[in-house]
Amino acid sequence: MQFLAYKTTCDAVLEDDARRRVNQLREENLKQKHAYFELYQNGQLSDDEKQVFEQNLREDPLLQYEFKKFKTQSDATPQPLFDQPQPEQPEAKVVRFSRQSRIRLLSLAASLTLLLGVFWWVNRGNGSEINHQLYASYFERPNTGVVKMDWSLKAPGTQTSNSELAEIKNEALDAFEAEDWHTAIQKIDTYVKKSERTDDTYYLLVYAGVSYMELGLYNQAIETLTLSMENIKDLVNNSRRKETAQWYLALAYLKNGNTQKFLELTRPLTQATNKKVRANAIQILCDFNPENCPEKTETH
């Protein structure tokens, strides 16, 4: 797992104006590109346009990534745990493009892809790549054995019995072990809504958060893991569980590109009571910045 991850900068290669141009072009084309993807998915492109698009899709890995990301976002995704009122949305307007606009959009998308390719090439050694490497090296799913032995207590007023609640929890953990992430999230959501809000209940949210991470839904993972960490209150008996939730939350921020939050959450874990979390926190900080390694700092 151990490797040296040196932070580098591409400021000398990529000037600020080029960086701003990439960001500006990406923002301008994002909505148009998604609208074009929708036209393709809905079968509204002409045969020629469809052929050109599919050929570009086969030959361009970056376009494949963007289209796959669009499809993932378009598909039905699990709703965040705990229902929250949503603001009323205005009626969506259908955007239609003329043939000339569609051809121009393909040209703009190709230009954007080229610029993004250059941007990735000069940044291939920067912090973002290091984040992905560290995440891949340290991410490990939590074991479910201990959680299965927790008591299941129904919430006051619910019609579900404790035994039925325990069955829901076991189904959630079985789905987690089977890598059925959507079912795991759905079952945990049901369990949390019907059970008494104890530390054990909030710790179960760690498994929902990890399921979101496995699905690549890091914003939902961050929301769920934050809820778990902040509501585990008994630090005498459950400090290790709170530290575990904090560890996975730190990894979610790392993968999501928020280095500052990753460091804020990981540094305190170098003093964790959970030995595995403490060792991982120390080592990942050493890998992230060998010159500021907690082990080296302690020896001075």
Please describe what this structure looks like:
It is a single chain. With 300 residues, the protein is mainly α. It has two domains: 16-81 and 95-124, no CATH class; 136-299, Serine Threonine Protein Phosphatase 5, Tetratricopeptide repeat. Helices cover 66% and strands 0% of the residues. It is built from 14 helices and no strands. Helix 8 runs antiparallel to helix 9 and helix 9 (199-214) runs antiparallel to helix 10. The protein starts with 15 loop residues before the first helix and ends with a helix.
User: How many strands?
Assistant: 0
Distance between the termini: 26 Å
Overall mean pLDDT: 77
CATH architecture descriptor of the largest domain:
Alpha Horseshoe
Please tell me what the overall shape is.
flat
Order of helices and strands: HHHHHHHHHHHHHH
Helix content: 55-70%
**CATH C-level category of the largest domain:** Mainly Alpha
The secondary-structure class comes to: mainly alpha
Largest sheet: none
Radius of gyration: 23 Å
What proportion of the residues form beta strands (DSSP E)?
under 5%
**Do you know the CATH topology of the largest domain?**
Serine Threonine Protein Phosphatase 5, Tetratricopeptide repeat
Number of domains: 2
Ranges with pLDDT <50 over ≥5 residues?
1-15, 118-126
CATH superfamily of the largest domain: Tetratricopeptide repeat domain
How many helical elements?
Answer: 14
